[in-house]
Amino acid sequence: TALAPGLSGSSTMPWSKEKDFREKLSKLSESQQSIQTLSHWVAFHKANAAHAANVWADEAQRAADPHRQLLLVYLANDVMQNSRRKGTPCADAFASQMATVLPAAHAAATPTVRAKLERLLSIWEERAVMPAPQVAEVRAALGGEGPPPASAPAVPPDSQQAAGLQAGAQQKRPRPADDAGAGGGGGGGGGGGSTVPLLQALERLTDDSSLDVVAAERDKVDVVAIERGEAAPAEVAAATSLLAGQRKRLATELEQRRQLILALAAACEAQHACCAKLQASAGEAEALVARIEAWQGA
Band of the pLDDT at 93, cuts 50, 70, 90? Predict the structure, then answer.
């Protein structure tokens, strides 16, 4: 993979997770959960932060939709802020790409998206997520002399962030009714019901990155120190709370996947019944055609 500008030659060696990361980036959605899940995955692979940043920058520059570029920058924002707090190399790796990625995204964006990108840059400066010289370099590339007004939130609450991204992408997305029609067989007289909720559940649960998040979280727990009695009470309590939360999340996802299996089975049964009715109706039509042709030949 060719290096994106801004990365050192340390990432010229092949990265075994590159294909996986590109696939996960392609599945990234506007939800805060999706962004945070992939951000945790990047943090888990912090030893390859330069590789991850290079792949991210390449995908961001390939993205034709400004709202898709904004979504990828939101991901980088989550990665960088968490990394800066924890002292991992991901922040520096992704920051080194911003002088290339942000100006390109800014140039192709609508005024609303531009304001959000500029506000993000100001947040990175205020919170020291990026060094001041890097911020100045990016801001100069954007054509600005200073931070924009605070009226354009760069990282709004979950619902606002999702709504902002979805609003721009909605024009290019088919309506749910169109999805159902393209899905082939949800409506009509077959009694199959709409396929849209099922397709949405399939898309959401196809991603198994929650296990990566669990592994990344458990990596922070020093079980050996706890077993030896060397951990502070606060660390033990934090580990217990973390594992209890994981158990609850995993149980919820397990139940969702089981329900999906049941829904798939019911959908298959409904579609089988629908196909049987269609086949019977087609047979009746064929028989009627034969009768008419026989009458015409008489």
Answer: very high
